[in-house]
Amino acid sequence: xxxxxxxxxxxxxLLWLTPGDPAHKVLTQHLHSKPFLSxxxxxxxxxxxxxxEVLHSLFLAYASKRLDFNPPSYIGRIKLAILDHNxxxxxxxLMGMCYMNV
Length: 102
Hints:
With 102 residues, the chain is mostly helical. It contains five helices and four strands; from the N terminus they run βαβααααββ. It has helices spanning 9-14, 22-31, 34-44, 50-62, 71-88; strands at 2-3, 16-17, 92-95, 98-101. The longest helix is centred in the last third of the chain and has 18 residues, at 71-88. The two termini are 45 Å apart.
């Protein structure tokens, strides 16, 4: 049997999944599906998305979603964001009183 989110004795009685239940079958199918397994491989190796989040925040700084840009202007702004990101990749950052390479 599998217990999910067990908080108290009363809740433990309600939250058990037994093999063969419809919910257990759906959960098992999801956990064995190819999309889930391919995504869990990325999480299992400790890969994080911090760099991608930085790039997306630069996209928002150069081309805000609140403003409407014509396509050539938008492409130019995205290229500027990419150039800004590439310029600052791998540079030293100030941590306290010493520099660290990232």
